[in-house]
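Record 1 of the preview.
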Amino acid sequence: QACCKRLLPVRKCSASCNAACRRAALAMRFLFCASGSTGHVNPTLPVVRSLTELGHEVLYLTFEEMRGKVEGAGATFFAFVDVQPECYHNKAPHDPEGEYGVIVKELGLDHTSFLSVFKVLNVVLETQLPGTMRFLREKQPDVVVHDSLPLCRDVPFAAQVLGIPRVGILSLAGPGAWLTHRPATMAPLTLADASVAVQNFGPHAEATARINDAYGLALAPGLPQPPGKLDTFKDSTILVTTSEELQDPLTDDLAEAYKQDGTSFVFAGPLLA
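->
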């Protein structure tokens, strides 16, 4: 019946609809995305399962290796490799870090340092966004639920451009955890040091300028500031997979920055299947 078509986030049924029709009309379409790492996908699966059991439609964008987990939770699987041909172009389709490792090698960077990943984040993002924008326009999700860490930035940014509500899932010990989480792998380099190195890396600067111009985003010239900030949180609710009592310390600067970005945090604790 016409009243049951997926036209608006809030759907109305006429009095002639039966109960099943009304339930269908109220169902929403959620799009989930996560990188191919098990530790990023697993926390999302109980949420996927709960939504599908409530009658909502869930689409899931990730890597082929996660197909079984995603479909087992009741979602419809989509592969990054298929959605983002501009990014993959027959390169490393099964690498858990996607195109990042390929670009790091192509640009002659040290593949053992996470600083190299920071340097190519926006280089890769520029190739991801066209396909992601097409996908979101085609599927028209009511809500995007995304891995909040940097390897899936294209989906929340595309949703931001298109005005789609976003919910992040943060599988770290709170919003303050990124400040010490990644620097531990780059020591003695700090995030402040890394930001300078990223800003001075030509391919990053060029890609950042093109992205900001094309999509109206305001990506930082280096790393998001203040140090430890994640730029996928803006105007979003972030579901944190730890308790508020056990979270890592949050600096005053970070707390104020997230407040200015319109970010709210919900400390859900471990999300278990």
